[in-house]
Write a structure and sequence with these properties.
This protein is mostly helical and about 325 residues long. The chain has a domain at about 240-335. It has helices at about 5-40, 60-95, 115, 145-175, 180-195, 200-225, 225-230, 235-245, 250-290, 295-335, and strands at about 50, 60. The protein has a two-stranded antiparallel sheet. The longest helix has about 45 residues, at about 250-290. The radius of gyration is 23 Å and the shape is globular.
Length: about 325
């Protein structure tokens, strides 16, 4: 049995709205749980217990810092299962040729708006049949400020909030010098792997993730006093603390510069990431069809520009992970006993 095109399109829209509603609920759960867990983690407490806000229940720090990142990682991973499904369905929706009379964008027919207009991963460069023909004249900076704000808010909530919350949990707990600090570290690294899928080449992302993961795990293992004593690192601790305390103001200024540099780069990525990828996909198609000998200087310069921007977005993720590692290392050395 073959259904008509109108019925197939109706089913597609229904499935998009259903997936989008589930994604919206998971976004709400991620925001609420992240805020609640971070407030709990950074509230004043004694050495062994934390008091949960609103409910007033006391839990041990080991239990909280082992369970909280697992909850966040579960919500974050489950959310991105739906986000990937939504992105795939939206790509199919965008390829359907139909005209609208009352709205400026066909996606305005869908619900809800926040995730419908988010910047999702674009796999067009990996699947030639899925490439969308985007002319170079259409590749320009967006002009709608409101659309920029929607894209940035969606990008931060869907992609950045989860890894940031798990990274802050790791920073807060690594100074406790407990083996359970490996749990928030591992959760943070898994969330970063999901985040790396947003930009750049998969091979480059995987290679960098392996290197960063090794450094994070090694540092977290060294933070455990028993492991540190067994390899004789305690002899270097006091001189290192003295040096860091002496240059604390310089280090704080450096972290501020790195943080705002990262924010600026991620702003570019959230607003223009899909434009960059669409441009590169179309340029690669031109190079394949016409041959590289036919390329002019303008085309080559534009291609190199977009390629450079793509690499810049990948580097921003490296900076993102490095900031967490540097702050965690600084806090650990300064405050550990």
């Amino acid at each position: 049995m073959k259904i008509c095109e109108a019925k197939e399109f109706e089913l597609l829209v229904s499935s998009i709205e259903e997936v989008s509603k589930h994604s919206r609920n998971l976004v709400f759960a991620l925001v609420v749980s992240s805020i609640y867990i971070l407030i709990t983690a950074y509230s004043p407490s004694d050495e062994t217990e934390l008091t949960l806000p609103a409910v007033g229940v006391k839990v041990t720090k080991d239990f909280f810092f082992a369970g909280a990142p697992l909850i966040l990682l579960g919500i974050y991973t489950y959310l991105h299962i739906y986000v990937n499904q939504l992105a795939e369905k939206l790509r199919v929706f965008d390829q359907v040729d139909f005209e609208v009379s009352w709205v400026s964008d066909s996606r305005n027919l869908l619900f809800p708006w926040l995730l419908i207009f988010s910047n999702f991963p674009n796999d067009a460069s990996e699947d030639p049949e899925a490439q969308v023909d985007v002319s170079l004249q259409e590749i320009a900076l967006p002009t709608k400020v409101a659309q920029h704000i929607i894209n940035i808010v969606s990008f931060v909530i869907v992609w950045i909030l989860g890894p940031t919350a798990m990274g802050l949990l790791w920073i807060q707990y690594v100074v406790q010098q407990q083996t359970t600090s490996l749990i928030p570290c591992l959760c943070f690294l898994v969330s970063m792997l999901i985040l790396f899928s947003r930009f750049g080449e998969k091979r480059l992302n995987t290679r960098f993730w392996i290197i960063v993961s090794g450094i994070f795990l090694l540092f977290t293992m060294i933070s455990v006093s028993g492991i540190r004593q067994s390899i004789g690192l305690d002899n270097y601790w006091n001189p290192l603390r003295f040096i860091l305390i002496a240059y604390k103001d310089v280090l704080e200024l450096t972290f501020e510069v790195l943080r705002w540099t990262f924010v600026g780069i991620m702003f570019i990525g959230s607003a223009f990431g899909d434009n960059i990828k669409s441009a590169l996909a179309h340029m690669e198609e031109i190079r394949t069809k016409n041959g590289r000998d036919s390329e002019g200087r303008t085309f080559i310069n534009r291609y190199n520009l977009f390629k450079g921007l793509e690499k810049l977005l990948v580097i921003s993720l490296c900076l993102y992970a490095s900031i967490f590692l540097a702050i965690g290392a600084l806090m650990f050395v300064l405050f550990s006993k």
